[in-house]
Design brief:
The structure is a homodimer of 156-residue chains. With 156 residues, chain A is α/β, with parallel strands linked by helices. Helices cover 41% and strands 22% of the residues of chain A. Chain A has 5 helices and 5 strands. The first copy, chain A, has a 5-stranded parallel sheet with strand order 2-1-4-3-5. Chain A is globular and about 50 Å long. The mean pLDDT of chain A is 94. The interface between A and B is medium-sized, with 30 and 30 residues.
């Protein structure tokens, strides 16, 4: 069974997001080993965006593992349908990676430098979403991918 | 102050979605008059998708008002950034409509026939989302549009 890590920056603040993540966490765990890693966000009260991104990039860098497929959720990334995402999953799984790592940036996104270390940039919507909402959307799409791959009932 | 109606099919089932909608409902109401209308979903235990869509389309049709800008949230619709959505809002507001009506389909989406009655088809993501999750995403984007138009802090 494949391992998926979702690596986020900053705690999940909104209670409703937390409840939604719990719900989909259970659903996804029917299909794979899912781990959530929360990186502490930079201190946004002093410094500037570039410094915050660099601070967070350093921590992100330490979690990147070459044996895992590294996907960054980023507005500049590839957009696709859920069916295409399920296809991508299948292709990546056949490439011999030991797991999938999804990184979700902080409130100010990723530095350009750290983005270069991703194997793939994925955009969940052309619209700007809070980094909290992206967690919810991502885990729902991971769940949906599994149901598409297994031809199960959820997706229509 | 402009009036927005969000018209959905079927109750909001997930508790976390309900909490999220409540949260954004309060936020959006700082800017406009927001009304939620829930249309009873078709009985999905008998009949087929076409019949369910037609049943729901009849109820949708009764709520369409020519004085309002009628927007259907649909996968086949236009995709755009949040900034473009805010621009669209401004343009539509200048066209003399008395309000905006956003329709979100049921679990099986809209019939092709009823879609023709929309002034605009809007897609929130190229990915398939549950019609419950679309409610959350839509109200968050409406809120975001207001903050973009007013040049307020939320959007970055």
């Amino acid at each position: 069974m494949r391992k998926i890590r979702i690596i986020c920056i900053g705690k999940t603040q909104e209670k409703f997001i937390k409840s939604g993540l719990d719900l989909y966490d259970k659903k996804v765990k029917r299909y794979c080993n899912l781990e959530w890693i929360i990186i502490k966000a930079a201190n946004y009260t002093s410094g500037n965006i570039q410094q915050w991104q660099e601070h967070e990039a350093e921590k992100i860098g330490k979690l990147i593992q070459s044996r895992n497929m590294t996907i960054f959720c980023d507005e500049s990334g590839h957009q696709m349908s859920s069916i295409n995402m399920a296809d991508k999953f299948t292709n990546w799984a056949n490439k011999g990676y030991s797991g999938f790592d999804f990184f979700i940036g902080g409130a100010f996104g990723f530095s350009e430098e750290i983005k270069k270390k991703a194997n793939y940039l994925l955009s969940l919507s052309p619209m700007t979403l809070t980094h909290q909402m992206i967690r919810l959307l991502l885990v729902e799409q991971i769940y949906r991918s599994f149901t598409i791959i297994r031809k199960e009932k959820y997706h229509h």
